Amino acid sequence: MVIREISLEEINLTDESYRISEELDCTALTESLRIIGQLYPICISTAGEGNKVICGFRRLRALKRVGAQRVVARVFDGQKIDPAHLFNVALFDNLSHRQLNPLEKARVLYKLKNVFRVSEESLVRFYLPLLGLAPTSKVLRS
User: Domains of the chain: which residue ranges?
Assistant: First the structure.
C-alpha cells in the first residue's frame, strides 16, 4: 500500500462495490475541501478495470464538485488483497467516525453475505456485534 496523488480520470467512478454510505452529498464537506483542501486520502484498489474506490466516496464526490483534477489516495494492490478484506477497510473507516444507519447496516450485511461470500457464522459472531446488532441468525433473516 502506498499513498500517492492520482488523477480523477484514473479512478472508476461508477463501481460502488465497496460503498457503504447512503448519503453522498455533503455541503459541509464540500465547503471544507474548497477552503482547506483534502486532508485525508481516499482509498482505492488497483484490481479490475480502473482504480476502484474502497472508501472516500463522499470526499471524492465533493472533490469533483470543487473542481479538483487530482486526489491523494491510499492505493491497495487489489491483485494481492482479498476483496473481503478491502470491504473491511471501508467498513472500519466508516465506523471510525460515525454510526451507520439501519439501511447502511443492511447494505453491509448484504454485501458481506452475497458479494464477498462471508459465512453466516462470521456474520453472526463478528459482524452483527460490530454493527451493534444481536449476534443471532434471526437478525440476518429479518
Answer: 1-81, 99-142
